[in-house]
Amino acid sequence: MAVNLGLEDVVVAPSSICDVNGKTGQLIYRGYDIKDLVENTSFEEVVYLLWHEDLPNRSQLDELKRDLGNSRALPSPVLDLLKTLPKQAPPMDVLRTAVSALGLYDPDGRDNSLDASRRKALRLTAQIPSIVATIHRLREGKDVVAPDPSMSQAASLLYQMTGQRPDDYTARTMDVALILHADHEFNASTFSARVTIATLSDMYDAIVAAIGTLSGPLHGGANEQVMRMLERVGSEDNAEQWIRDALARRERIMGFGHRVYKTDDPRAVVLKEMSRELGERTGSPQWFRMSDRIQAVVLQEKGLYANVDFYSASAYYVMGIPIDLYTPIFAASRISGWSAHVLEQLENNRLIRPRSDYVGPRDKKVVPIEQR
Ligand SMILES: CC(C)(COP(=O)(O)OP(=O)(O)OC[C@H]1O[C@@H](n2cnc3c(N)ncnc32)[C@H](O)[C@@H]1OP(=O)(O)O)[C@@H](O)C(=O)NCCC(=O)NCCS
Hints:
single chain; binds coenzyme A; 3-stranded antiparallel sheet; globular; 58% helix
């Protein structure tokens, strides 16, 4: 049996949701290039696209927006649970716990028919941003902000976090960030979700597994680590030496490298521009400049390109988003892709059960316990 450590280059299933071309640096969702989607659609249109085969028409979009808006409020027992959880707990852990709890109150229960799963996908996509915002409000000792059903997903997330209605520029910036994070083929968390649903468990089981998988620093947790690194670097002047020293110590630089992209990650290209523009608009260009210097050194020294997590960190930072919410916000977007993959897996399911290459000993005999 051939062994592919980390399933590198192993193709597990056909999928018509998303394609990543690591050589040309192209990302498409159901046939549409990510750049086209960023320039010409909203996150809600992308959610519809991922769940269906094409972009929505006006009435389909209006219906989706209405349904999302009307599904954002959290069931009161989940709100009560959130109030009892430790305020200093990592938000990804709280999110995982709250999503698991949400499953207990979903009117469709453990029904994993396609129709019920679609309804669960909608509720989760509406409610995960509410959970993220609520975690933040509660730990700050502030009142929970009731969602405004008329707002977009992006605007509502910011509104529920801050209690302030975001201006159009800020809301659109978050909207673009959500589009960029919505799906990425068989990344680790999506694969977790597909493995989990493939046992015919249910949408909530799959999404809880995906959240746990996303949290690690080699995956979605990298964006938080990037910002912690930028804080340690401290200044543009310090950046080059700091990174050279870290590379000399053979440290992994968060936000660089990718299993599939061996060229520019197209999401990072958009986020880089976003980080630059936000830095200038907010009068804090140093985080972008520091990042830019770091990118040049890592490319020169290691031939590694920035990934989605690198420039999202400095962009979110100057938007005033707390660092430990970066990965939960990733989840608030990726729920759309995770759920699309769960639906696709259910439509044509086969249990996912690979083999290991056993390299342990054989032919041992049990020694009675007193003699061991
Ligand atoms: C994403 C990632 C896990 C992909 O890893 P992978 O496909 O398993 O590749 P490997 O870890 O085998 O790396 C291949 C080589 O590049 C090096 N490398 C990869 N990413 C690196 C990084 N971020 N910093 C420094 N070196 C890195 C590895 O040390 C290895 O070098 P070696 O062959 O001399 O040992 C990896 O690039 C990484 O850890 N990046 C940082 C975390 C991150 O940003 N994650 C978000 C991904 S979107």
